[in-house]
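Tokens in:
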């Protein structure tokens, strides 16, 4: 399909932390396939350090998806770069506009699932494939074979590797995803029971998650609280060294799942959760039409089953 020594490539990826996690395999595959190419990434400032550590890309161009004026400035930068190939992993209306101008003004070839693609992937009906699978199928159109990273670049020293019975708890969601969040009181009761059973509780979260993480920490005797101290590398590294990960269907949960450790997902029984959480040996799901209908007893018993406790 493409020469592996194609000179300049642009990869586009914005979105939530979960969206980024879903795209990592495709990004790693692109880097592996085009070993001698100069690969640029168009992304948001909040992910700049994360992607620099990955070594997937040679250069990063920032696009915080602001005003029309800022978008035009970004587009002007992209056109001047004269990319040979654009791989659009965002596949949004905005990125499709970028693709239109890159295609016709700088003669870039476009791989996307949108209308301006030269190599267009026709996405499956909703619920038929996971976001990760869809992106891998998209890059297959340009001859890129899908491979999986071991994510060693995410593994750092957390200082808590000595705990043998560590359970990672990811209790919150984004503001828009609150309907997917298991109730605070359930997380608190469960963590108390787990701690009483000999488990060591570790909580991660951002500043906006302090309400729930503080309640868990206050109600447990010796919980490790990484609230506001849990960027993706911390989440991954704790997940790599714990007994089990317990999470809602949320971005940090998908980062933790990269560890390939056992994950117990508490999720709404809908198409979105079913495709976000792939059916693998490491993923165990408890699904309900209403997240609050999942009982503490059900979760506690499932954890005992998983851990043979």
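Residues out:
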């Amino acid at each position: 399909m493409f020469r592996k020594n194609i000179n300049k490539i642009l990869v586009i990826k914005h979105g939530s932390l979960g969206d980024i996690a879903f795209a990592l395999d495709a990004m790693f595959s692109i880097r592996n396939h085009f070993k001698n190419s100069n690969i640029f990434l168009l992304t948001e400032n909040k992910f700049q350090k994360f992607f620099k550590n990955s070594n997937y890309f040679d250069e990063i161009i920032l696009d915080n998806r602001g005003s029309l004026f800022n978008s035009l400035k970004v587009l002007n930068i992209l056109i001047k770069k004269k990319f040979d190939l654009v791989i659009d992993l965002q596949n949004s209306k905005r990125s499709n506009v970028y693709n239109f101008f890159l295609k016709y003004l700088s003669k870039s070839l476009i791989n996307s699932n949108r209308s301006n693609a030269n190599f267009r992937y026709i996405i499956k009906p909703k619920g038929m494939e996971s976001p990760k699978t869809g992106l891998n199928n998209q890059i297959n159109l340009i001859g890129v074979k899908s491979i999986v990273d071991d994510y060693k670049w995410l593994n750092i020293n957390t200082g808590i590797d000595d705990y043998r019975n560590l359970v990672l708890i990811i209790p919150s969601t984004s503001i828009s995803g609150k309907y997917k969040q298991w109730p605070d009181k359930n997380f608190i009761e469960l963590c108390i029971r787990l701690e009483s059973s000999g488990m060591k509780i570790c909580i991660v979260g951002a500043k906006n998650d302090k309400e729930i993480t503080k309640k868990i920490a206050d109600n447990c005797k010796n919980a490790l609280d990484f609230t506001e101290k849990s960027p993706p590398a911390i989440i991954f590294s704790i997940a790599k060294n714990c007994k089990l990960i317990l999470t809602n269907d949320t971005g940090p949960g998908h980062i933790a799942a990269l560890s390939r450790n056992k994950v117990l997902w508490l999720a709404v029984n809908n198409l979105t959760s079913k495709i976000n959480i792939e059916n693998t040996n490491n993923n165990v799901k408890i699904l309900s039409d209403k997240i609050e209908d999942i009982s503490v007893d059900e979760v506690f018993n499932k954890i005992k089953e998983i851990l043979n406790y």
